[in-house]
Amino acid sequence: MRWMQGGLPKLGQKAKLQWRGTTVAQMDIAQARPPFKSAEVLMVFEPRDVPWLWLMSRTQRRRDMLIIRGWLVTPPPVDYDVYAPGSWSERLTSGAAQGRNDFGRTGYAGPCPPHGKPHRYIFTLYALDLPPDLPAGLNAARLNSLMRGHILAQASLTGLYQR
Predict the structure, then answer these.
(1) End-to-end alpha carbon distance in the chain
(2) Are the beta carbons of 72 and 140 closer than 8 angstroms?
(3) How remote is the C-alpha of 152 from its chain's centroid?
(4) 68: CB partners within 8 A, 6+ apart
(5) What does the DSSP assignment read for 128-143?
(6) How far is 128 from 136, CA to CA, in rounded Å?
């Protein structure tokens, strides 16, 4: 897994998703091959450092406090080399199941930080000893519960993005 060469495009360039009146940045992801052939592979995109999440976690009693999931997919499609936000959605044809993100949608949503300081964005690829039939529409709290004790390997990539 690596960040695409050339960095992030300017906000609003090619992006279609709107969140609270702001265009979400378009950010592609490249995929590496999984470390184990028999493992379930899961990719999680976690924007961090968003100040309003603390308040939201308190008012909605969220279990994933201070973490917003931009995308959950299992397994990442091996027939795609690059993921682009909004390039595919619930109609994914490679046999992958996607979880619900914190935009309330299924699929991958790129970064949409508030103006100001840079924010961290973490892409984590997990190899799990779980059956390959994790339910579609899985949310972050249920996913964390299912993964506990089943992670064989993981790799993360952290990038910074600022508006």
Answers:
(1) 24
(2) yes
(3) 19
(4) 46, 47, 50, 53, 102
(5) E-S-S-PPTT--HHHH
(6) 16
What's this model's pTM, rounded to 2 decimal places? Answer: 0.55
C-alpha 126: how far from chain center: 12
At 113, which amino acid appears? P
How far apart are alpha carbons 148 and 93 in whole angstroms? 28
Under 8 Å between Cβ of 98 and 73: yes
Q: Would you call the peptide bond into 76 cis, given omega within 30 degrees of 0 as the criterion?
A: no
Rounded CA-CA distance 89/41 in Å is: 18
pLDDT in tens, 54-87: 444 444 433 332 233 344 444 444 433 344 445 4
Query: Domains in the chain, start-ordered, CATH in brackets?
Result: 2-161 (3.90.280.10)
